[in-house]
Amino acid sequence: MTGRLNSAQPYALGLFRIVVGLLFACHGAASLFDFPNGTQMGGQAPEIGTWPSWYAAVIQLVGGLLVMVGLGTRAAAFISSGSMAYAYFKVHQPEGLWPLQNSGEASAMFCWALLLLVFTGSGALGLDRLFARRAAESGSEPAAQEAKAAAPATA
Q1: Does the global pTM surpass 0.70?
Q2: CA distance linking residue 143 with residue 153, whole number of Å
Q3: What are 34-59's pLDDT values in tens digits?
Q4: Cα separation of 148 and 13, whole Å?
Q5: How far apart are alpha carbons 90 and 28 in whole angstroms?
Q6: Is the dihedral of CA 93, 30, 54, 42 positive or negative?
Q7: Is residue 84 pLDDT above 90, yes or no?
Q8: Whole-angstrom Cα distance, residue 88 to residue 95?
Q9: How far apart, in whole angstroms, are the C-alpha atoms of residue 73 and residue 76?
Q10: Distance CA 24, CA 41 (A)
Q11: In terms of CB atoms within 10 Å, which end of the chain has fewer, N or C?
């Protein structure tokens, strides 16, 4: 049974990445565009360039979309995770020590989920892997090494 689970790991990781990216992008869309209707975070869209709310919303939308499609996953997840750490410690944590006290559960969960993707990469079903595979087929040596490292392990 362990062998089957191990062989499915890249696909489970890919699905995890897609869901986390979609949910993260939805937070940015809700903040910037009130999408979906009636879910705007904080009740009013931040003005362009407003620190930190507008920048956070842009990072959420763009970072979430990049993570979702698996393009530049590690870099996008790193920046997005950092923005959630900032949100937790600067916005939520001063309101109380524990996430349940300060309404910081989402920030903490996104921070750690995105940090996990920094270390694991995009998994299966991502554009990172597709581009690495194409570069490996064309004979590019650094890309071939990247594709080999991203290939699922067989058990």
Answers
A1: yes
A2: 18
A3: 776 655 555 677 778 778 888 999 99
A4: 17
A5: 18
A6: negative
A7: yes
A8: 10
A9: 5
A10: 13
A11: N
